[in-house]
Amino acid sequence: MSLSQPFLPQFRAQLAAYGLRRARQKAGAHTLAGLEALAAPALPNIDLGPTPAQENSRERIFTLRRCFWCFLWQLLTPHTAGREVVRQVQALLGLRGLGEISSSDSAYVQGKARLPLALLKAALGDSAHSADQRTGHLSYPGLDREVLVVDGS
Fold first, then answer.
1. For residue 6, how many C-alpha atoms fall within 13 Å in the half-sphere facing its CB?
2. Sign of dihedral through CA atoms 143, 147, 152, 153?
């Protein structure tokens, strides 16, 4: 979308935000519904089932599994508030015909706070191991050195 059109310059400020949103959508921003399908194969050893103890054992909207994927989606989507995560969950539940939930992000924030640090560390280790297996031994052209870190920013 070109924002330099000469006919309606007073609308440029209003259209700029729209252009940024469209650019993010075209860049391949994924929904919460698609993230699990894309990322789950990279995390084969992560147990997101209910725990036998009291915590995380009841079946709620924001279960351990859903909170984990919501948290990951929020991390991967820049400038995303908890309310946007709840909107994604509302859309997901609507698609599956599972009813409606409140638009408050309180339950999500509480569920996110219950995510065990050990689970997040294990997910990081699993994803690093999976990425290492998929890439093999890459090297910089001409340097014959193994790539240890890639900055994707």
1. 0
2. negative
